[in-house]
């Protein structure tokens, strides 16, 4: 038996598409396994005859194999047979009818530029002299008539990404110019420049982070010093008897919001002893209202006077306090 020819497999062909072996329908072909020469069904207007048939057809793995048996009573077929016998003609090509195509990435191979034929029908197989590819083929329409190349490529158009290649190149040139490179810069040069800029940015980010930490440390230190200053002011005022423990929280908040104002008020306040607020005769009285027009006036009389005023005239104390610190009900 003559050696088998590989009619097809799922490899990528020269036109940028491929035919999946698993999607082939061979029923019609097995009923009429015609062998043509160069996909031609005639050599002049009178003799539209095939040169033979294919036998021992099989699908072995991804390869579709068959053995050509040529017509020994046809002079032209005999010439082809002799060339095959001498291993001069070694190539063949299938003619198929396309049923379904797909651009799904799972069917695409590197370098593929057209869709994959996922379902198809084998119409004929031809011996060829010089094929464009070892898996070159011919497409047939639904009437099993050979299709012109233009119609074939209408069924299998180039992917859009190939049609937009020029636009991509223009965008690359613009990127190169914005990076300070020439518009002829290669992709590697562009990537290298981007890497340099990213490294520079990373270094700047590190410096910015270090400065941020230093600033936070300085701020923490300043806050500590400010609080210590406030604590010292309030503690001294309490030790001098200018304010009571009940007033401590108020003056702490006062000093935190306006240290100078709080210090000025505390500096004008004198320590007040019980005798200062007890009039002769042994009866205790609050400070004279005529002398207590503002809360600051009251504070100047000392802690004990403030507490006594607050106990005897709570409403007036509250009014003066609100006016002093502009508190609205």
What is this entry, summarized?
The protein has 329 residues and is of the alpha/beta class.
What brief labels describe this structure?
11 helices; nine-stranded mixed β-sheet; rod-shaped; 329 residues; alpha/beta
Notes on the protein architecture:
The protein has 329 residues and is an alpha/beta fold. It folds into 3 domains: 5-160, no CATH class; 164-232; 240-325, no CATH class. It contains 11 helices and 9 strands. The protein has helices at residues 27-31, 75-85, 149-155, 160-163, 165-178, 187-239, 245-257, 259-268, 295-300, 303-312, 314-325; strands spanning 5-8, 18-19, 24-25, 34-37, 52-60, 63-70, 91-102, 116-128, 137-140. Strands 1, 2, 3, 4, 5, 6, 7, 8 and 9 form a 9-stranded mixed β-sheet that branches. A hairpin with a 2-residue loop joins strand 5 (52-60) and strand 6 (63-70). The radius of gyration is 51 Å and the shape is rod-shaped.
Count of distinct strands: 9
Tally of domains: 3
Number of helices: 11
> Which band does the percent of strand residues land in?
15-25%
As a whole number of angstroms, the C-alpha radius of gyration is 51 Å
| Termini Cα gap | 112 Å
Largest sheet: 9 strands, mixed
Coarse morphology:
rod-shaped
Structural class estimated from helices and strands: alpha/beta
- The low-confidence parts are 273-287
Order of helices and strands: EEEHEEEHEEEHHHHHHHHH
Helix content: 40-55%
Average pLDDT metric: 80
């Amino acid at each position: 038996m003559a050696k088998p020819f590989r009619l097809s497999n799922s490899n990528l062909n020269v036109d940028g598409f491929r035919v999946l072996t698993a999607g082939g329908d061979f029923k019609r072909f097995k009923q009429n396994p015609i062998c043509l020469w160069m996909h031609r069904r005639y050599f002049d207007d009178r003799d539209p005859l095939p040169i033979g048939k294919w036998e021992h057809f099989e699908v072995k793995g991804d390869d579709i194999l068959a053995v050509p048996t040529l017509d020994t009573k046809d002079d032209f077929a005999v010439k082809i047979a002799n060339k095959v016998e001498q291993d001069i003609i070694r190539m063949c090509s299938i003619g198929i009818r396309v049923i379904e195509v797909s651009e799904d990435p799972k069917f695409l191979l590197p370098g593929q530029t057209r869709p994959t034929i996922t379902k198809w029908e084998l119409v004929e197989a031809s011996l060829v002299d010089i094929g464009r590819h070892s898996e070159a083929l011919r497409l047939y329409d639904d009437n099993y008539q050979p299709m012109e190349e233009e119609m074939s490529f209408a069924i299998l158009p180039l992917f859009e990404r190939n049609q937009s290649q020029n636009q991509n190149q223009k965008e690359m040139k613009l990127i190169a110019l914005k990076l300070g490179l020439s518009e002829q810069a290669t992709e590697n040069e562009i990537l290298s420049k981007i890497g340099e800029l990213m490294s520079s940015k990373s270094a700047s980010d590190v410096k910015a982070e270090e400065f941020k930490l230093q600033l936070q440390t300085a701020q923490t230190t300043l806050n500590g010093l400010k609080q210590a200053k406030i604590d010292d002011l309030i503690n001294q005022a309490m030790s001098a008897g200018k304010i009571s423990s009940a007033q401590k929280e108020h003056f702490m908040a006062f000093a935190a919001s306006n240290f100078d104002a709080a210090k000025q008020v505390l500096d004008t306040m004198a320590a007040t002893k019980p005798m200062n607020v007890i009039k002769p005769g042994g009866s205790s009285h609050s400070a004279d209202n005529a002398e207590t027009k503002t809360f600051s006036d009251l504070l100047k009389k000392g802690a004990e006077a403030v507490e006594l005023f607050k106990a005897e005239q709570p409403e007036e104390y509250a009014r003066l306090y609100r006016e002093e610190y502009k508190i609205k009900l």
